[in-house]
Design brief:
- This protein has a domain of 186 residues: Glucose Permease (Domain IIA) (Distorted Sandwich).
- It is built from five helices and 16 strands.
- The strands form three sheets. Strands 5, 6, 7, 9, 10, 11, 12, 14, 15 and 16 form a ten-stranded mixed sheet that branches.
- Strand 1 and strand 2 form a beta hairpin.
- The protein is globular, with a radius of gyration of 20 Å.
Length: 349
Amino acid sequence: MRSISKMMAGTTILAVLLSACGGENSMNNSPEASASASPTEEVAQVTPSASPEISESGQQPVQPENLAGALLSSNFSGIYERFSPEFKQQISEDEVKEMGSAFIQGVTAFEPSTMMRLNGAEHRIWTSDDGDKGIIAVFDEAGVIHGLNITELTTYPETDKALTRTAMTLPFQGDWFVFWGGNNVLNNYHYEYESQRYAYDFVQEVNGLSYEGDPLRNESYHAFGKNVTAPADGTVTEVINDIPDNTPVGVMNEKEPPGNLVVIDHGGEYSFLAHLKQGSVTVKKGDSVKTGDIIGKLGNSGNSSEPHLHYQVSDGADLFGSRSLHIRWKDNLNPLKGQTVTGKAAANR
């Protein structure tokens, strides 16, 4: 779940993100950095550092929007000087040069993809002109780099195109922020794992912050306690409701990765709604639910370092033993990292 990356190893993502829901067999395998910037040591609420005006090599400092260009021009020293002191402890400048030099071979350009701001951190993503390599970096408000990952991009075109038979609605009401969502590992760390490939992590934000007040209290988070709803008609096949929410925020329960959970069978396609608030689930196994029915409230249970909703659809009732399915959303919705999406109340409910 944690992700202070050995910068360019391509197996972990970022230094300053939250954690939520895991790897292939358990939710505590990096490259997770899930849901949203966490308020504790993985928090994207980073402390700005002083920015160098001129690098030791005499070059202008690397600005966030120019990082990909600096990498492509082999300005590894300029990039490294922008690393936070903590990040420099994870990797040396020589390692950056070695891995960066190998990575840019055969690349003529990097195109900017996603740019997202939350909790004082700026997340930028670039992809290569051929679409086979990508960069994701996290900066603080002073442009200091707190996390950087460069990676080969693997795609799964067959399953990318195979959408669920059931058209799903968003499993909440109101505005929610997509922290992880998309069809590559840069926009969606889940994509690497077959069992979670098309999962989403949603938080709520107000004025660029996912919380207000004490970041160690669950109640400070805008998403905490909000209603979670059934995304489609179906039958409840599993309920977990007795796992305490993690306190203080930032402490995670790796023994119970999904935390409090509701699983709904839509006729061979199973919705998993995870990290619910302890004691809040309002349905039981065997219940029939309709689209928009409240099934519980959002919490911070399980292997989660901030209140957020993990949602996915799978081809079986076993979260880790089934394959994640690419969700067909109603109204041609296509939630992507960094977007705000709005869930509507069900008609006549």
